[in-house]
Amino acid sequence: MFCSNLNAARLCLRSLSRHTRLYSSRTSTGLENKNNAGRVVFSGIQPTGILHLGNYLGALLNWVKLQNEAHPTDDIIFTIVGWHALTLPQNAKELSQSRTDMLATLLAFGIDPKRSVVFYQEDNQCHVELSWILSCITPIGKLRRMTTWKSRLAAKRNANDESEVDESMLNAGLFTYPILQAADILAYRATHVPVGEDQTQHLELSRDLADTFNRTFDPQKKFFPLPSQLITPCRRVLSLKDPSAKMSKSSPDISSRILLTDSGSQIERKIRGAVTDSLQGITYDPVNRPGTSNLLSILAACEDQDIDNVVRRYEGKGHGYLKKDVAEAVENMLKGPRAEFERLRQDKEYLSNLAKEGAERAKERSRRTMQEVRTMIGLYS
Q: Which chain regions cross the lipid bilayer (predicted)?
């Protein structure tokens, strides 16, 4: 979220720092008790190593709140998307461990397998079957206009001195994975998808493909619903070393991010080394004091406090006081789930059985979809 001036920035952070209370409102989630029962909510996450604080405050926390606030008759479905991870080179052993760690992370931080369907995407072949069917009605032009594809192509060109670098430098999976993403959603005839605004274009493709399929094969009944985007309150946590950029797993500097598995001493060391500024006092000014403002934002999120209330506590104090309090607040928020994560990741049999149970529940739903799809396209007798 970008704000044009200080007052606007404060209003933005005030809204974000109350995201927990806003999200528990039925209006904000779109999952009202009345008139909205029976929705199907779907989202996925890649198994790309241990999540960091930005992932938790920006996505996972919202998943948990969505699950806990959903109507009892809503289907809540979360998947770990291993096939999507293959669009970039992977070490097989590391990917296998990352899958397990991601499942343990989701459970440790509040995803309840009794309330939500949780499974590995690659355990349900309905996704790839539907992806192939949808690929046969997807114009190549639509895929070439996808922002992710264009950005990957631009990055490849910038990394290569030869001017003739073109699409042939990238793999087909990167080109077609938005279709698989649409299949992930439509296999469950999902009605709502909680994703950030950076995924809006991909969700629009899912809606377009659902509409194309309906008009081609089922113009009367409109078999696939057009999934709606659930814009969830999303806090933008910045790098501790470069507050002009988001906190990211891809940064080569491990000190730039707080991993959900970091110990209390590691958290304290990283916060103590966070970039701030040499100005006196503590004020919230994302434009001129991004590092200081980032720490205030993190503290407000951990304590579920209004940003102005947090700032007032540091009148006449320096960065040392602020960093100490931020480190303590982050540790208090993470220590319980961290301990549960460490326990779960050691119990591989439990995680394996839970994933299989989740996959069976997912298959039960998607098989019904695919049986009707095959009938409509003429591949079922």
A: none
User: Do residues 292 and 271 touch, judged by C-beta distance below 8 A?
Assistant: no
Element (H, E) at 73: none
Burial class (CB in 10 A: 0-12, 13-18, 19+), 221: exposed
Question: What is the residue extent of each domain of the chain?
Answer: 40-235+348-377, 254-346
- Architecture per CATH, domain 40-235+348-377, reads as 3-Layer(aba) Sandwich (3.40)
pTM value is: 0.82
Mean pLDDT for back-to-back runs of 10 residues, the chain (381 residues)? 35 37 34 58 90 89 92 96 93 95 96 97 98 97 85 66 59 92 98 83 94 94 93 79 91 94 96 95 95 96 91 94 97 96 96 98 97 94 70
pLDDT at 284: 95
In angstroms, rounded to a whole number, what is the distance separating the alpha carbons of residues 269 and 35? Answer: 50
Residue 36: per-residue pLDDT: 47
Q: Which of 6, 11, 17, 8 is nearest to 289 (CA)?
A: 6
Tokens 């296999």 correspond to: 187
Cβ(226)–Cβ(233) below 8 Å:
no
Phi–psi pair at 344, nearest 5 degrees: -65, -40
Return the CATH superfamily for domain 254-346: Tyrosyl-Transfer RNA Synthetase (1.10.240.10)
Q: Which amino acid is at 378?
A: G
